[in-house]
Amino acid sequence: MGGRPVTVRLARWSAEHPWRAIALWVVFVAVCFVGGNAAGLNEATQADQAIGESGHADVIVTEGKFTDPAVENILITPRTGTLDRAAAQAAATDAADRLRQITGVASVGEPVPSRDGAALLVPITMAGDPETAADRVQPLRDATAAAQAAHPQLRIEQVGGPSINQALDDTLGRDFKRAELLSLPVTLAILIVAFGALIAAGVPVLLALSSVAAAMGLSTLASHLVPATDTTSSVILLIGMAVGVDYSLFYVRREREERAKGRSGLDAVEIAAETSGHAVVVSGFAVIISMAGLMLADDVVFSSLAVGSILVVAVAVTGSLTVLPALLAKLGRWVDRPRVPLLWRLTAPRTGRHGQPARPRFWPAVLRPALRAPRATLIVSVGLLLALAAPALGMKLKFPGMEDLPRTTPAMQAYDRLTAAFPSTGTSHTVAVRAPAEQADQVRVALTGLARTAAADPLFAPVEADGPKIEVSADRRVSVLEVATPYASRDDRSVRSLHELRDDLLPAALRGIPGVEYAVGGGVAASEDYARHIREKLPLVMAFVLALTFLVMTWTFRSVVVALTSILLNLLSAGAAYGLLVLVFQGEWAQDLLGFTSMGAIVSWLPLFLFVVLFGLSMDYHVFVVSRIREAVRAGRSNADAVAYGITSSAGVVTSAAIVMVGVFAIFASLSTIDMKQLGIGLAAAILLDATIIRAVVLPSVMTLLGEANWWAPRFLRGRSRPAATPPADPTPELVGAH
């Protein structure tokens, strides 16, 4: 009794005391969730998120303690032809009068004509906290709509940070609500098809949702150690649903399989714990290792994502070892009720010769080339995957800019007209200077000269008629200048203007001023600095994940070869996903098909995040499949027959788990923003490739070619766990007879 693995002892206790285990789980989830809400969320500050020179510029600006109120604009343009100056002036006066009556408006500026006279701009300064301006901008938009109704011959639009943020929040809110509404029924539908029974389909979803709830609370508590970001909860939901459903699926399928052989409920749970439960622990540990690698990125966003992901995976593993066996023991054969007639006949576990599960006909047909001609199959499949990965060598990294936001909202359409009429209101570089207070006047003169010099360069926008606007802090130590460029943030000319400003214009302007410190920030700078940061950190994170995963896999399977092949196959899968992303999103051929506008690059944070997520989730399938193969080898089967048994006996559950993930990730690809589209497509495509080509073609080819060498390990690792070379048992002639 004492020598049994802890997974078996936990499962046995839970199965023998189901109500206690279920009650403890409910209390655990409730305490985590309520405790987290009571503690409150500690969100990352701008200083926490500072990366590179642009981050340094943000820190300097923050130290200046500027009063930076939210600003909106009324843009007046003609519907057709040229602008009627008198009518535009009357409309501007009317709009200004309406806006001055609103409590949330601090001041309304004088109308400013564009250089070509084709537009009129009325600046508005909002009162109150700029962080909450988007929540208070609706009364201003209502006043603008009233002015538009009074002057139908003109186009009168409101545009600015708060109105754009409100429109974006509304769009993303609808997107995520739709994604949440779709993901649950999609997951349930796939599980019903996989199990053919409603209760069996509901159990994995129940575990996943409760794991997510507990992890949300724990991550809120953890935010007081590692500050959280806006994306943490979304990633917890994404990862939690994926691994929670996977782990339950592996466990429930094995328990049903053992009951189909005639074992009692407790024995079936115990065997499932010893096999699938062990695989869940190993794969969960592999996912945790992958996510922990994000900590090395030296980025609070990735650190918060790592903490959230680690917590939800740890909770899901714990639930699969405790409350899941309790539920299965309590439900007994009721887990297969109510049955969906046709689906039940297709999915119900059946036994064949010697009490083994009956094998489907589809997977033996898929496996036949890998088992009979492994070398040729391996060369062809790996060649195809490498060809798919090749475009990743040309990957470009950029942050999405304003031009990459959905143009379906009036606020973004107005923004395009605003930047066309007033180029200096579009993309700009933030020049932040810190110097002793007595040098403030000298700094102002230098920055004024810098603005004039830049304005003469076609890479920069002209200076407005009232001259460059230089902000100076109350203590006169910090000065800030916005240097505009007429090009979009992802345009190569915007990047060239940044480098010219950083490398030549700014150092020359400030040369000779004692004690001066400066940095250039802004959207373009942040994109360039973050891409450089990711390129520097990605090799370090990859090395950490690969090294620790190798050690875990070597110790788990007592085989150096299995550990090496698992890492190589996962790298192949990740490379193919990268290549596919570049093919789809850096070109323009898929724009209409997937509903996006190509930004000519991949979102900067995606390659690093995608690598750790894919590497972790791929290990789920790999550990589960290889565990079944090793189980067959240790039972005395030949290597070729063990490979056939392992793949065919696990193919159904791996396919079902993969389809769930692909379905959920594909929903994210339907969201409006380019980063969510790239994340959804990248994850869905990679999981699909991994569960099909990698696991059903490349893996059996490799393991068939290697034969007994699969299980080689140094003497100190072998112990009793090393599979012995024994005569074949229960061969599968239709698959391996010709090998």
From TrEMBL:
InterPro entries: MMPL_dom (IPR004869), Mycobact_MmpL (IPR050545). The keyword Membrane applies. Keywords: Cell membrane, Membrane, Transmembrane, Transmembrane helix. It comes from the Bacteria. The chain crosses the membrane at residues 22-41, 181-214, 234-252, 273-296, 302-329, 376-395, 538-555, 567-587, 599-621, 642-669, 681-706. Residues 65-375, 405-720 form the Membrane transport protein MMPL domain. It is a multi-pass membrane protein. Its main location: membrane. It is found in: Cell membrane. This is MMPL family transporter. It comes from Micromonospora antibiotica.
